[in-house]
Amino acid sequence: MSFLSGRESYERSELHESGVDPDPLLQLGQWVRDAEQAQISEHNAMCVSSVNLSGQPSSRMVLLRGLDSRGLIFYTSYFSRKGRELTENPNVAALFYWRKLERQARIEGVVSQLSDGESDAYFATRPRGHQLGAWASEQSEPVESRELLDRRIDDYNSRFDGEDVPRPHSWGGYLIKPFRIEFWQGRPNRMHDRIEYTTHGHTWTHQRLQP
After folding, report:
1. Cβ contact 25:67 at 8 Å
2. Which end of the chain is more exposed for a tag (fewer CB within 10 A), N or C?
3. Collapsed DSSP state (helix, strand, coil) of residue 49
């Protein structure tokens, strides 16, 4: 099978060292906002990759739910496959790809769980159906049928009828504290712009990488 026809020339923009923020988290925030302003669907979607104790990597899409001076925030089940792998090995990578803008951002770092208070606060903002789903689904575990999942949703809807849905203890937030962030801007002839940030403490430095 050949994919030789799947080539594009990237010509939308350029990326210069003088034009990026000294803080890569602020630069990342700007790129996420750029994607939102470009009306890219789920502009905050990122691929998170974890590695288990056997060294087997695993990737999946999640939604970025927070970005501040600490790092990147997302939420999931602690007992899901990714939750278990993040507990076994806190080294993690994340990737944003915005095809419309011909951009990607690569993040490498160490993950840790958010506080209960921060997870509670976010959970309270979720749609009620999403809250019930966190109770009904034992994420990544086998299930007999879709009908069983639907019955679980109905059961928890009845259980919490007329009251706020509390956050299950099996669900919460993760913070990726990055030590490497790369910004990639597509350019013609595959001579792409790549600016890499690294840190060894609290100070970030950046350099241009060859495409």
Report:
1. yes
2. N
3. strand
- Is residue 190 part of the annotated active site? The answer reads yes
Give this prediction's pTM. 0.92
Query: Strand, helix or coil at 151?
Result: helix
Dihedral pair phi/psi, residue 82, rounded to 5°: -65, -35
Pairwise CA distance, residues 160 & 148, whole Å = 19
The model's confidence at residue 2, banded by pLDDT at 50, 70 and 90, is: low
Question: What does the alpha-carbon distance between residue 166 and residue 209 come to, in Å, rounded to a whole number?
Answer: 47
One-character DSSP codes across 141-198: S--S-HHHHHHHHHHHHHHTTTSPPPPPTTEEEEEEEEEEEEEEE--GGG--EEEEEE
* CA–CA dist 169, 207 (Å, integer): 42
